[in-house]
Amino acid sequence: MSTGRPSLVIVGAGPRGTGLLERIAANVPELYGDSGTGGIEGFDIHVVDPYPPGAGRIWREEQSPLLWMNSEAQDVTMFTDETVDMAGPVLEGPTLHEWASLGGRTFADRPRQGAYLRWVYERAVAALPPGIRVRHHPRRALRVNGPREGRQQVWLEGRSRPLLADLVVLSVGHLDAELDDEQRELATYADEHGLLHLPPDFTADSDLSALAPGEPVLVRGFGLAFVDLMVLLTEGRGGRYDGQTYHPSGREPILYVGSRRGVPYHSKIGYGWEGERPPLPRFFGPAEVDQLLARPGGSPRSSEAGGGEGLDFRRDVWPLVEKELGFAHYHRLFAAHPERTRIAWTDFEEKYAAAEGVEIQALVASAVPDPTDRLDLAALDHPLDGVRYTSHEELQSGLRGYIETDLRRRHDPSHSPDLAVFLGLLSVYGQLVRLGDIGSWWHGFFSYLASGPPGPRLRQMLALSRAGILKFVGADMTVTAEDGVFRAGSATVPGVTIEARALVEARLPHPTIERTRDALLRELYADGAAATPEGLLAVDAADGRVLDRSGTPHPRRFALGPHTDARGSGAFTRPRTGGPAFRQNDATARAALAFLRALSCRAAA
């Protein structure tokens, strides 16, 4: 391609880069016209990613079909609808289940999702006019440099000359991280004593071959990374399920799993919505976010990004979130199960709106007689607080009972306030995006309640537990390296420890801009880009431009995705939920097209 033409470089060709390309194609007719005619020159788009465009690394088609999506096929779309608050046009397209001809409630395997993403990418490229050309570079981007007011240079691995770009968009997705101090110490100890330590990683990329059959393995982390690990070390090694029974192949290690909570994420809800939906947002919507942002230092960004001291999430934001989730819960309880309440909804709603803190607790206690019908977010977050078992065997039985209870509840519509809380969580997340970096606690809490595994995965956990392949450790799991082994324990079973020669950290890496293994982002930070207190790349909320440490947006660099403080609630957007990621993609696409058109017009003048 000619380097004289205007050019856009997109670093990262996974779902976010593909979504940006779809929005560019949608907005081209309005903002760029039929490029190549009327005196307006077209432009080049360079897509940089060592993995196939569309799916990228995480969703690539070349991975085990035993690994599933964590969302139902009907809840995965790459296309906008009229609920998205954006300036660009809606271009509808099929959800995953429509495209793949799957049942809506199916949890598709990840290779199938990769094929869907590849199709979306190819459709977006085909929708561009002839004057806009796209080229994929299957390489890693190493760094970006160049003057603020001039062309940028994007250096690629194995290439001596850079790509020249008038604009650069970093949509690099999930990142690897350098080991933190604890992980480094554990890794060093393992090397010195002939042990095995697998640090946080994307499980599909981990080399699990050294985990020997029949040997105990300590696993720290009970979320979705653990589910993948469990699958690959059981079915992935030839085991099979027959109903509620697991038949081992003999090649499985024995997994001892624990975490901070000591329990797996809550099961996906196994029924659909019927009847009136709670009118959300109610207590935490755009007006409340505006008020938070209007406060002095009303952004959680660090002072180096112009945000002052920032908001305190627990003090300033959480009370509003808690009230919003409670409203969703009780609206559904009073609407669908009025026989389990003592007063009329209109009376409850009026009093709830005026109440705060302990007043809300008193109101709920008087209006909802059964404690199991009351929403207790603290108890949900710490299910094993104060729970003690006298033996390791008693813990196994107790945790199986906990999982069985969770499965029953999450598949029983008589507990439909749980689904209302799920809708509340989605609504809250859509508002929190505007606040930027709010810390890591909320994201973990959201995932634990709203983004847990499909029900069948928890049933598999139960079968593996009964077969003796999976053993529970408990809450606040401790890990020490001493006497030539790893040891794990938990206050849930006082005095009991488990020894093993292998330790797996079953969680995703938590990279900061300073600790990421991505050389490009580290260089960007060293060059003056701002980071939030949590180590996220600070971007302009309006269009995703990268901020410097004075809070000034870079005119030619944008960033989208989980490495930024404008990250969304998950990898994919549910249809008809207003998708913040769609809004962000559209804003960035329109800003890029306006810039490139102005550049072309100046060149043609």
TrEMBL record:
Pfam families: NAD_binding_9. InterPro entries: HpyO/CreE_NAD-binding, L-asp_N-monooxygenase_NS-form. Residues 551-580 are annotated as: Disordered. Residues 9-174 form the FAD-dependent urate hydroxylase HpyO/Asp monooxygenase CreE-like FAD/NAD(P)-binding domain. This is Adenylate cyclase. The lineage of its organism: Bacteria, Bacillati, Actinomycetota, Actinomycetes, Kitasatosporales.
